Amino acid sequence: MKHRKKIIGICGSASQYSANLSILKYIAESEKSEFDFEIIDDLASFPQFRTELTDKNVPEKIVAFRQKVTNADGILICTPEYVFSIPSGLKNILEWCVSTTVFSDKPIGLITASASGEKGHEQLKLIMETIQTNFTEETTLLIKGIKSKVSQNGKITDIKTKSELRKLIESFKKLTKKLAANT
Which is an annotated GO molecular function term of this record (predicted)? Predict the structure, then answer.
C-alpha cells in the first residue's frame, strides 16, 4: 500500500465562500489517493499573536497548530491579497511560528489567488523565505482575476487555471519526495 503524504492546506481568506478555499478543496479532492489532506480555514479563531507568549504560556490552539505543521509532510497555503498584503489571519498564524523551527525546511506550495495579488504574493514568498521553508518557483502560483475563474458553487471553471494548478501540484509532490529522501 502506498504511503499517503500528510499535507496541511492553509486558507488565508476570512470568507467562508472563498475561491481560495475552493482551490484547496479542489486539490484535496484531486489528490485524495496521494494526500491525507487537512484544510485549516478558521484563521480568525486563533488568538492574536503576543510576543510575551512565544515560549511560555503558548495558547493550546497554537501548540496544536505548531504540532500539525511539525507532523506534516508538506504545507500548501492558498490566500487572497488584502490591501496589497497577506491577510491578517494568515500573518498572525505565521507570526506564532517565527520563534520556532516548525516551518524550517518544510516543503511549501504557495498560491495567491486574488484580483491582482502581486504584492501579497511577494510578501508571502518573503515571509516563507524568512521562516526557512523550502519552495521553488514551480511550487508558487499567482492567479490573477480569481473571481472570473471559480463559479458561485466553488468549481474551478478556467482551463488554464486548472492546468497551472496541476503543474504546481506535480512540482509540490516532487519537492516533498526529494526532501523526504534527504531526511
Answer: oxidoreductase activity
